[in-house]
Amino acid sequence: MAVELIKERKAVAMTGNQAIAEAMRQINYDVAAAYPISPQTELMGFFAEYLANGLVDTEFITVESEHSAMSAVIGAAAAGARAMTATAAQGLLYMYENLPIASNWRLPITMVLVNRALSAPLNIHCDHGDAMTARDSGWIQLLTENSQEAYHSLIMAVKIAESALLPTIVNMEGYIVSHTIGNVNLLTDREVREFIGESDWRKNVPHPLLDTDNPVTYGATALPDYYTELKYAQHVATFEAKEHVKRVLQEFNQLAGTDYQIIEPYRLEDADFAIVVMGSSAGVARTAADKLREHGIKAGVLKIRLFRPFPYEEVAEALKHIKAVAVLDRHDSMNGLASPLYQDIATALYHLPERPMLHDFIYGLGGREVTVEDMLKAFNRLINLYTGKETRSRFVEYLQVRE
Predict the structure, then answer these.
(1) What span, in angstroms and rounded, lies between the C-alpha atoms of 323 and 356?
(2) Whose CA is closest to 173, among 122, 241, 113, 92?
(3) Distance from the CA of 389 to the CA of which of 8, 12, 217, 339 falls in 20 to 30 A?
């Protein structure tokens, strides 16, 4: 049994990695498996200290690769264990073979993805390239803005995964959040464990492998006569997952006094122009919107917290009255058309009888610093396109290319 360490709520200065490790200690997973890769490595190092000091009784498996880490937690979760892992960039790509297995088997695994740019060229700093490679894997994805959100999101992710019976990724931007100190309001150990409930292998998954009285098969072959129906069942579960996420966020808000929603509008009620963004850049975008409003320009921001399943109905409702929207994505799909987030936003708005004008910006790649001036540049370019002062040759452009 884990030691009860935090008996009263308190505020602590923590990096994102420390905050996630603290949440892991409070959750007290049955099984955790991981392989080191920057900027995730110290996260599991902090948790290993808790384990060495006898503060948790998690079975911590130090595997020989990220592929093995995902294999280990899949096996553990199928047996009924509450299981998690963490990785970044190339580590996630090495896991990828197993990601759709975890989701189609409906295993409530949680994973912390410490976002890092994909090679090549080699870069260990942040963008969202790794998260985007998993966008069609069947995993729920949450994105976080700071250490506080990362800490809260992992706690919520356990309950989300076990409610929706879908594995869940908590994205935390490498170095920008993982290694930056911020104020984190910690819940008590008892509050966290009562919120997520006790781990019970007979209840964590509907058909645990260890239930020998009710034997089941995992990993069976499905030929053309059944494969479509199995994927359709997963498809339906993905659509239903959004309601599970909303319910868990509401329950957590009641516990922690927070106001988490699957999307976070900022000054959008009367806005003419808006930026859509995910992750830590939301704060910078909000500052830029405030500056524009000081000059009489009605600007706002929409932060996407739930990326998968994509909250298309809520996005459409939030943006339907906006004149023009700039979508900012920390990843380039290299598809010759647009970034992943832009495509999702465009799809969400397509059915509206009157749609905002959209423009796509790729920014912040490889950890490039994002400034208020960058956000103002995006807003100004958007406004000039809308008013006809400038023209464009394509829907997507890089925001920060040096001349």
Answers:
(1) 5
(2) 113
(3) 339
Residue 277's SS3 state is: strand
pLDDT given at position 161: 98
Predicted TM-score (pTM) of the model is 0.97
Instruction: Indicate if the alpha-carbon torsion angle 28, 29, 31, 32 is positive or negative.
Output: negative
- Beta-strand relationship, 31-34 and 59-62: parallel
Cβ contacts of residue 199 below 8 Å, gap of 6+? 28, 29, 30, 81, 82
- CA-to-CA dists, residue 396 to 70, 181, 326, 342, 403, angstroms: 35, 34, 10, 9, 18
Residue 403 has a pLDDT of: 80
Helix (H) or strand (E) run with residue 13 in it: strand 10-14
Q: What angle do CA 141, 265, 132 make, to 5 degrees?
A: 25
Q: Which two tokens stand for residue 290?
A: 């405030």
Shortest CA distance to 318 belongs to which of 301, 298, 330?
A: 301
Mapping DSSP to helix (H, G, I), strand (E, B) and coil, where does residue 173 land? strand
Euclidean distance between CA atoms 364 and 251, whole angstroms: 34
Phi, then psi, of 172 in degrees rounded to 5: -140, 125
- DSSP 3-state percent helix, strand, coil across the chain (nearest 5): 40, 20, 40
Q: What is residue 230's three-state secondary structure?
A: helix
pLDDT digits (tens, 9 = 90+) for 335-380: 999 999 999 999 999 999 999 999 999 999 999 999 999 999 999 9
